TrEMBL record:
Transmembrane segments: none annotated. It comes from Flagellimonas chongwuensis. Residues 200-251, 312-377 form the PAC domain. This is histidine kinase. Residues 252-306 form the PAS domain. SMART domains: HATPase_c. The keyword Transmembrane helix does not apply.
């Protein structure tokens, strides 16, 4: 019966689903389950062939020693068979008989290859995570809602500068954030992550265990099951150095921007397509648009086509041929106003040394150009005045010398003459000579007054009104000479003029037209005026004797130059008119045909 029971027991052993083997004290296999034999690739057990077990566990060198201790223990080991090498876990326990005597060893072996591979994968992932944490200086944290347990990794503890043994609570963790905005913000975000399942990612400031203020980037993501937040997992990274560096860059950028904006010139940077990618305040003010409206635009978007074409051609020259433009004078018309610039453009290179655009600078020199024009005009006027002064000096010298000689001669006659009648005649001649000298001096004073009065004040005057006023004051003379005046000047035409000069110019030109009338026809004087951008053109035409311009053209406005045999001709009126109109920035020209008439064209400058 015992034998049958023994056979049944061994047969039962062979069918066990778990790999099991029985060893004697010498380590010889007594029997084993089929699954155990399969693990080692052994054939079914028989009594003709004894199998020693110790060689099967060659990677467990102390196995024999451990078995002699008659204690249970477990070991992990590898087994190689026809299926390859696998990972296994064997449990060794003493085998007792009915009398509790140790008669051998019971072995149970489990195939844990899949488990080991998973452990290796987890370990590999853990190593990757630790490497990333170490490299990126990013720590992680985990909060379990059920247990209210908060876990920090070593990097998170390092960031907070706490001991490795520190185990924080949520309250303690939140109190690390700087009071005020950072602490309030993280409290709100953490609460929303749990209650509303909202993830977050933000930059906040903490105060470490050692009292340092540090910027950190903190994230949190809730894990939800059945609508409930099970845990919140997040990361924390020390970004203090990055923030400080970024703030430093911003400070430098702000300083540079302030400096560039403060420069008294327009500064801009263009890309390869001539689009403006950076401008200063001066450029923005000139274009009269905000920086946001200008960035990304090219010159065709901002200026007229002609100006844009010229600018683009310059840009291509600078960027393609790497030829800088330095101090080039340009004139740009924008919004109807022309501005003169001194422009420079230089190539702009990236870190690889490749041209990526250009830097442009334009200095507004409009005021300088205006001063240059004023200086040229002043030089021109000064030159003209010098010429006039020389001519005037000659005239004064000649006239006074003539009067002086006449006086000397008459005085000599008076000294040598004894006849009372003749002496009376000479005395009358001296009186007439004195009157002529006074008239000459008066004329010369008028010329001096016109040429030396540099601060003449021009006023806007209605031209027709002043013409009518002169004609009224001159009506007796005009009626006496049966003169006809046709005034075509419009009521609304204004001229910028010195009132006294305007009256003098009109009076002299009309009186000359009557004075030098033709004996064959009644005097006809036609007055016209035309307004243009440059100013006003006043024309006074007559049908009088006319002037031979080929003969007298270069002398017509000279002092004391006469061209007709008239007793009252003094040759001073036209000279005075020319000086008066030029003193006001205008000019006068003449057209004339002998015995047909003369037209004087007076150009009034509109500038005050």
């Amino acid at each position: 019966m015992k034998a049958v029971r023994r056979v049944d027991q061994f047969y039962l052993l062979k069918q066990l689903p778990k790999a099991t083997a029985l060893l004697c004290k010498k380590g010889i296999l007594i029997d084993a389950s089929s699954s155990w034999l399969d693990i080692f690739g052994l054939p079914p057990q028989n009594n003709d062939h004894q199998i020693k077990v110790f060689p099967l566990y060659a990677d467990i060198p102390d196995l024999k020693k451990k078995l002699k201790e008659n204690k249970s223990f477990s070991l992990r080991h590898k087994i190689s068979n026809h299926n390859g090498t696998g990972h296994f876990k064997s449990h060794f326990a003493p085998w007792f008989d009915e009398k509790e005597n140790v008669i051998g060893t019971i072995i149970q072996t489990d195939n844990i290859t899949a488990e080991v591979e998973k452990e290796q994968q987890v370990e590999w992932l853990q190593n990757i995570l630790e490497t990333k944490v170490e490299v990126s200086k990013t720590g992680w944290w985990e909060f379990e809602t059920a247990t209210q347990k908060l876990t920090w990794c070593q990097e998170t503890k390092r960031i907070h500068q706490v001991p490795d043994c520190f185990e924080p609570t949520t309250v303690e963790a939140i109190e690390f954030y700087k009071p005020g905005y950072s602490r309030n913000k993280v409290s709100m975000l953490f609460h929303k992550a749990i209650e509303n399942q909202q993830s977050y990612d933000t930059n906040l400031m903490i105060i470490t265990f050692n009292g340092e203020e540090r910027w950190v980037r903190v994230t949190g993501k809730p894990y939800v099951e059945n609508g409930n937040t099970i845990k919140v997992f997040g990361t924390i990274r020390d970004i203090h150095d990055e923030v400080m560096a970024e703030n430093k860059v911003k400070e430098h950028q702000q300083l540079l921007s302030t400096l560039v904006d403060s420069l008294p010139l327009n500064v801009y940077v263009k890309d390869l397509e001539s689009r403006k990618v950076l401008i200063n305040k001066g450029e923005s003010n000139y274009i009269n648009k905000s920086k946001e409206e200008i960035i990304g635009k090219n010159d065709f978007d901002l200026y007229n086509e002609d100006t844009a074409k010229i600018s683009r051609e310059e840009d291509i020259q600078v960027m393609k041929h790497l030829t800088p433009i330095i101090g080039k004078e340009t004139a740009i018309t924008h919004n109807g106003k022309t501005t003169h610039f001194l422009t420079s453009k230089i190539p702009y290179f990236d870190l690889d040394g490749k041209v990526c655009g250009l830097i442009g600078m334009s200095l507004d020199i409009s005021s300088i150009k205006k001063k240059e024009c004023e200086l040229r005009d002043l030089i021109k006027i000064t030159s003209m005045q010098n010429q006039k002064l020389i001519g005037f000096a000659h005239i004064v010298s000649h006239n006074l010398r003539s009067h002086s000689a006449n006086f000397s001669m008459l005085l000599e006659f008076l000294k040598s003459e004894n006849d009372p009648t003749e002496r009376e005649r000479i005395t009358k001649m001296l009186s007439q000579a004195s009157d002529n000298l006074l008239e000459t001096l008066e004329n010369l004073n008028q010329v001096v007054d016109v040429n030396t009065n540099t601060s003449v004040t021009k006023k806007p005057l209605f031209l027709k009104h002043n013409i009518v006023k002169v004609l009224q004051n001159f009506s007796a003379f005009l009626n006496k000479n049966d003169s006809q005046i046709i005034n075509h000047v419009a009521e609304d035409i204004k001229v910028e003029c010195v009132p006294a000069y305007l009256d003098s110019i009109i009076l002299n030109l009309i009186s000359n037209a009557v004075k030098y009338r033709s004996p064959n026809r009644k005097p006809l004087i036609i007055i016209n005026a035309v307004k243009s951008k440059e100013g006003v053109l006043l024309s006074i035409s007559d049908n009088g004797l006319g002037i031979d311009l080929e003969k007298y053209g270069d002398k017509i406005f000279g002092m004391y130059k006469t061209f007709h045999n008239k007793e009252d001709s003094k040759g001073f009126g036209l000279y005075l008119v020319k000086n008066q109109i030029e003193a006001m920035g205008g000019s006068i020209t003449v057209q004339s045909d002998v015995d047909r008439g003369t037209t004087f064209n007076v150009y009034f400058n509109e500038e005050s």
